[in-house]
Amino acid sequence: MDLLHLPRYPPPSMQKGLTIMAIATVDPTTGSTIREFEPMTDDEVDAALDRAAQAFPGYRRTTFEQRAGWLHATADLLEAEADETAAMMTQEMGKTLSAAKAEVLKCAKAFRHYADHGAAMLADEIADADAVGASRAYMRYQPLGVILAVMPWNFPLWQAVRFIAPALMAGNVGVLKHASNVPQSALYISDVLRRAGLPEGCFQTLLIPSSMVEPILRDPRVAAATLTGSEPAGRAVAAVAGDEVKHTVLELGGSDPYIVMPSADISAAAATAVTARVQNNGQSCIAAKRFIVHTDVYDEFTEAFVAGFAELVVGDPTDEATDVGPLATEQGREDLEKLVDDAVAAGATVLIGGHRLDRSGWFYEPTVITDVTDTMDLYAAEAFGPVAALYRVADIEEAIAIANDTTFGLGGNAWTTDPAEQQRFIDEIDSGQVFINGMTTSYPELGFGGIKRSGYGRELTAHGIREFCNIKTVWIG
């Protein structure tokens, strides 16, 4: 098939009715617009896709050693620029400076991880040649080509890097459509890779609105896509990719359970629960959101949990004393506020918080709410902010039933020192990952992804680097 004779990126005449959204840095601490960016034109996008397509044949022939060198150089730059980069991320989406710096350093670690281990992860998988009547037989992992990444704003660097590092190490090239409210973070990613020596065209940021994702995904120069974001966004990308028969990886959020049983260290469980809920100002897909507590320790846990929320300092994310900054967008705060207000109107009880703060910016009080029933939207929705829903259960069966009573299946936590209970939670919680006596987080050394409506595919580890590879069978007679 000759790509030169297939339809290219659709011209303006094929894009009537598409809405062009603002691409801008708006400081969520003040609500002030810091900087606006013009969306790329159709010609600019077409040229970027051409650069990527032309870069791929040469880049795929580079050695693992060469790619590892570029990834290590990128990690060096990230570490050297961590303070400045963290300040930029905090201004764009409101995470605390300490959290932002930790994110930058985590990205550096991921680049180094794949630089050091990528070659081994993609080594030929030797088969039993005698069993298949060959002199040699094996599986080879080869890059697919140009990969489109559609990324969210909540972890502006990490969400992108956990795709970029393995994809580049595997020999793919990429184009990034980042969230419209983190354009400086998006541009920094492509710039730091360029300064690290990555060949031209191998990774490019596209400053475009969401309406332009479909024509890019349909473009024959794009081989596959990955998306982290909302369920509606995932459905839209999956539908287009399915129509085009292109591979996708989707991570679509979660409503993670956090189960506490009588044998747990209640003090540790409650303290960790506070962090698990309000990490990243409560805006994390794998943040614990539903706290399911055995009745025998419910009162003890609740007292400690609410006390922990009461101690949180909400304020300017650039202040080292701040624990919780603003929500990233005004719409996000409105959505969270509606979930809480509707639940209270339907009979839920707020133990602490429950209101926006009367100040500039998009702040919302850390909130613990109980008496939540399955008739309330809060029961099923992903509350993306510092709001914890608390449930009392009679036994392990009820705990598992409530944990699984969701359309999501990203992560889960369970606190118990009983080996039999631990095994039941590992076996029976419907999720892509389960953490026992700890807080769900992500590591390059552990696979990341969900089931049900939390998406499909895996990131990180060898599973992540192989997602965008052609697993080619080789048989030699």
Automatic annotation (TrEMBL):
InterPro entries named among the record's database cross-references: Ald_DH/histidinol_DH (IPR016161), Ald_DH_C (IPR016163), Ald_DH_CS_CYS (IPR016160), Ald_DH_N (IPR016162), Aldehyde_DH_dom (IPR015590), ALDH_GabD1-like (IPR044148), GABD/Sad-like (IPR047110)
Pfam families: Aldedh
EC number(s) per entry: 1.2.1.16
Keywords attached to this entry: NADP, Oxidoreductase, Plasmid, Tricarboxylic acid cycle
Location of the Aldehyde dehydrogenase domain: 23-474
Protein family (similarity comment): Belongs to the aldehyde dehydrogenase family.
Name used for this protein in its record: Succinate-semialdehyde dehydrogenase GabD
Lineage: Bacteria, Bacillati, Actinomycetota, Actinomycetes, Mycobacteriales
